[in-house]
Amino acid sequence: MASDNPNLIWIDCEMTGLSLERDALVEIAVLVTDAELNVLGDGVDVVIATSSEKLEQMNPEVRAMHADSGLLPLIPGGISIEAAEKKVLEFLAHHTVPGKSPLAGNSVGMDRNFIARDMPLLNDYLHYRTIDVSSVKELARRWYPKVYFAAPKKTGNHRALGDIQDSIAELKYYRENIFLPHQ
Q1: Is 128 one of the annotated active-site residues of the chain?
Q2: What pTM was estimated for this model as a whole?
């Protein structure tokens, strides 16, 4: 990996809700791509156990989403947050340099907040810069509506790994249709 063009760390998290005060991180998936958006390695996808209280307080919409995706019944058998963080860091050590690779994904600000709260070693590993595909999507919607409306449909089913794969495909699409080389 060239240090002047570090790989991208793609992360998606699933939570019991969006409140940092009361909700839990229940799934994290990580992929790494090079600058050309080629996926390196198999990545990590783990379900994280949480308390029955956290599961009981989920709002009905989130509960239905996690039930429909198949995640909900897997949560009680998940691994600890510490074990999940360790698996992620072990994977990243093979493909990235600490502090050099930006976090990438869709609406990754919320994911970063939960990572900062629950996985401080991972948070410190990530570069401070972020590549948020949702921002590109919002700009495309405003400036290139034809490109926006022709974007690939999401297939991730609100599971972390599928959502990351969708994010990578979406950024590839915008790269091919908006970020064109100057002639």
Answers
A1: yes
A2: 0.94
Which of the four CATH numbers 3.40.50.720, 1.10.3210.10, 3.30.420.10, 3.40.50.970 does domain 8-131 have? 3.30.420.10
Of the residues 128, 144, 148, 173, only one is catalytic, namely 128
Query: What does the alpha-carbon distance between residue 78 and residue 4 come to, in Å, rounded to a whole number?
Result: 37
Sheet holding 8-15, edge to edge: 39-47, 25-33, 8-15, 103-105, 130-132
**CB-count exposure of residue 118 (10 Å: 0-12, 13-18, 19+):** buried
Name the DSSP class of 79: B
Give the pLDDT means over successive 10-residue stretches in the chain (183 positions): 74 96 97 97 97 94 95 97 98 95 96 98 97 97 96 88 96 95 77
